[in-house]
Amino acid sequence: MNLTTKTQRAQKKRFLQGNTIYLHQSERSSADAASKIIDLCERFQIEAIAVGNGTAGRETESFIRSLKLSRKVPVVMVNESGASVYSASEAAREEFPDHDVTVRGSVSIGRRLMDPMAELVKIDPKSIGVGQYQHDVDQGALKKSLDDVVKVQQKVTATVLDVDLKRRRISLSLKNNPGKKQPPQAGAV
């Protein structure tokens, strides 16, 4: 389970806190887990909860949905294929040197909810588990296709950022020149 907050996104998806909870061991552990989850949701103003679709994922999703949270927080089942591969990778160890593979895997699952493509490109396609015929695909061609998709996404992102920055510059320029018409707001085009 991973908790996503506005603060995390604002701080470049920085890891804020890790807790281990035991939902399904006993009534007492379930009550303790409920208390911790409610506290974390309130303290960090959680906007969404990502639950991995692995072992006990459905039970965990049901448990969280049953909690009496102070506001509505979406609970989303996230495909965790390859998360364990990423969590043991050199990239994950460099990013989170002070955390073990379970924490790194949880962060990866949470990030998949926020930005799936950015997280999945960190994993070798063979490790994602895309179906029983995945090994029949030419791995070199698959890697090239995935690299091409990432390049296109990067160009689109850069273009969107460039357009937004130009729109902001125009807006600032018009604010400094009274009498000129303001440009349309973002999303109004």
Task: Describe what this molecule looks like in 3D.
The protein has helices spanning 6-10, 27-43, 57-65, 83-87, 90-95, 101-114, 116-120, 139-175, and strands spanning 2-5, 46-52, 75-78. Strand 2 (46-52), helix 3 (57-65) and strand 3 (75-78) form a beta-alpha-beta unit. The longest helix is centred in the C-terminal third of the chain and has 37 residues, at 139-175. The protein has a three-stranded mixed β-sheet with strand order 1-2-3. The protein is built from eight helices and three strands, in the order E-H-H-E-H-E-H-H-H-H-H. It starts with a strand and ends in a 14-residue tail after the last helix. It folds into two domains: 2-135, Nucleotidyltransferase, domain 5, CATH 3.30.420; 138-189.
For the record, the count of structural domains works out to: 2
Classify the fold: give the CATH topology of the largest domain.
Nucleotidyltransferase, domain 5
Number of helices: 8
Please state the CA-atom Rg, rounded to the nearest Å.
21 Å
Low-confidence stretches: 6-12
Order of adjacent strands in the largest pleated sheet: 1-2-3
Name the structural class: mainly alpha
Task: Give the CA-based shape.
Answer: globular
CATH class label of the largest domain: Alpha Beta
Main traits of this protein?
single chain, Nucleotidyltransferase, domain 5, 189 residues, mainly alpha
List the helices and strands and how they pair.
Blueprint lengths: L1 E4 H5 L16 H17 L2 E7 L4 H9 L9 E4 L4 H5 L2 H6 L5 H14 L1 H5 L18 H37 L14
Parallel strand pairs: 2-3
Antiparallel strand pairs: 1-2
